[in-house]
Amino acid sequence: MRWSNLEVAPGASCVTIMLPAKTDTLSRFRASPIVDDLREGFLRFLAVAAMFIFAYRGVYNLVIDPARLNVLLLTISETLTLIWLLLARRPKVRDWNPLTVVITLTATLGPGLISLQPGVEIISLAVAAPLQCLALWMSIWGKLSLGRSFALLPANRGVVTGGAYRFVRHPIYAGYITGHILFLLSNFSLYNFGVYAIISSFQIYRLTREEAILAMEPEYRDYLGKVRYRFFPGIF
Length: 236
Description:
Order of helices and strands: EEHHHEHHEHHH
CATH architecture: Up-down Bundle
Radius of gyration: 22 Å
Distance between the termini: 55 Å
Shape: globular
Helix content: 55-70%
CATH topology: Four Helix Bundle (Hemerythrin (Met), subunit A)
């Protein structure tokens, strides 16, 4: 085993202590960036597989009933998320907290549990579909502004403050949650309400962890002072 010195300032009345250097195989394994990349790759695979299945279900339902625009828009949104996940760059910092990993996976895979069967129209499709289009555009604009800095786990892939991020801190989440609410209102069921309630609460936890990581950068701390709202200006 290799040993390392604990250095002491000159003149200090202290005994030099020899500490074992952490160079064992297990420590190197845990600290290896390759292991982190493999873990994230596995999580991405799970997310991509779930989104692919959801997209297939959406297309299948549209073949049966092409008039269901709310299903079409939801399918497009999840498909775009799949594409951005595949293109995302390697992060500088990841949040591997076990609770965060579980919540992130649940929030990401949760939409795959949504029932696409016709439900109760609390608001008509004629009203919901145009608004859902706006929500979809908000998430697309956010992704275009973010570029390859899109992340699955809360992570630092670089600070982005332009485009849609000039107005709110999390335009992609805003688009997701708004689109989910509109789909639910035009296709309501208690089951879907329960799934979306869990997904939305988990997404809020996820974005707070993301902000905590990004706030380690001075540029992002300045950004927090300039852009106060997370989803909707003047509301939240």
